[in-house]
Amino acid sequence: MPTSGPLALPLQALSWLGNQGTRAIVAVLLAAIAVPPLGELARPYVTEAIFLLLCISFMRVDVAMLRAHLRRPVLVVAATAWTTIAVPSLVGSIARLTGVDAAAPDLTLALMLQATASPMMASPALAALMGLDATLVLIALVTSTALVPLTAPVFAYVFMGETLSLSPATLGLKLAGILAGALAAATAIRLVFGIGTIRRHRAPIDGFNICILFVFASAIMAHFLADLLAAPFRMLGLAVLAFAVFFLLLGTTMLLFRNAGREHAMALGMMVSLRNMGLMLAATEGAIPGTTWLYFAMSQFPIHLAPQLLRPFAERLRAAPRPPGENDQALISPARE
Fold it and tell me: 320 in helix, strand or coil?
């Protein structure tokens, strides 16, 4: 990764962008909304954007922490079970018991798509931008994603009946291809450049990651302004619901995993609350009601704004003294076996 010559200026620009941290994520959302034509141009490249986001996450994984987490898999197994089985079970059960599924089937479909989806492939990168344990998030992301082709059709059948038709084979092949391809590409990059070079170029890599997030956000928010002008109160209500779901998942996960340590609990909370609805919608080939699309667009606001809002809280967690009995080190330090 040269620092002089024809690539010097682009690297400097990416470094500046990467150093903006969570502020850049907010700017990405605002820019995506402000320039709708870019969304039409970006839409065909959503899959490639998701692939690159995961590739960056694989490329930057901390192998030492990875091995430490794998030696103690209880936390990863618990997080995987919570996000892939417990969350959709709870959402579906609440919708059925309260009658929301009958009163608002399109909204129930949106919530079930969100609940059954795997965590966002950008969640490790967002966790890293907040200074949280991206390696733990990445491991739980991979295990959760691997299970989604099996769990999503089951929950669709139980809670949505014939409202949604999912092909587990198609979804499974897509997820497997993305994961395997991203892992292979990231491994090749690490072998060619070395992990030391990757760490030294953290800022430009962060900047490139933000550019990829912009491609994804532009595709999703292409029709936001038109929908907002057509039905402002409806959009506001969906936005409030999207934020409520985000913070409910975040807070509940942090509470459940508080014994794992505050930073780990918050990292897992971010992962669980950031759901990859894009892949779930792609599996349906877009055959979903308009309300579902609108909720999906509004869910981008907590995804892009929460890292900026929550970063001061994450910094206070890292700076605060650890209470007796908190076992962060027991989870991440191979020396304390």
Answer: coil
Taking only the tens place, the pLDDT of each residue in 190-206 is 999 988 888 888 888 88
Nearest-5° Cα angle at 293, 212 to 110: 105
Non-local CB neighbours of 320 within 8 Å, separated by 6+ positions: 262
Contact 204, 18 (CB under 8 A): yes
CA atoms within a 13 Å half-sphere pointing along the CA-CB vector of 24:
23
CA triple 233-108-54, angle to 5 deg: 95
Q: Work out the number of other CB atoms within 10 angstroms of the CB of residue 47.
A: 15
CATH architecture of the domain with range 20-318+328-332: Up-down Bundle (1.20)
Say how far apart CA 323 and CA 320 lie, in whole Å.
Answer: 9
Query: Taking Cα atoms as reference points, which of 249, 247, 227 lies closest to residue 236?
Result: 227
Residue 9: both structure tokens together: 């200026």
- DSSP class of residue 324? T
Q: How far apart are CA 317 and CA 267, in angstroms?
A: 11
Give the predicted TM-score (pTM) of the model: 0.74
DSSP assignment of 86-142 equals IHHHHHHHHHHHHTHHHH-HHHHHHHHHHHHSPBPTTHHHHHHHTTS-HHHHHHHHH
Please give the Cα distance from 157 to 108 (Å, whole number).
13
pLDDT per residue as tens digits for the range 148-195: 878 877 887 777 765 555 555 665 666 677 778 888 999 999 999 988
**Of 109, 126, 123, 119, nearest in space to 147 by CA:** 119
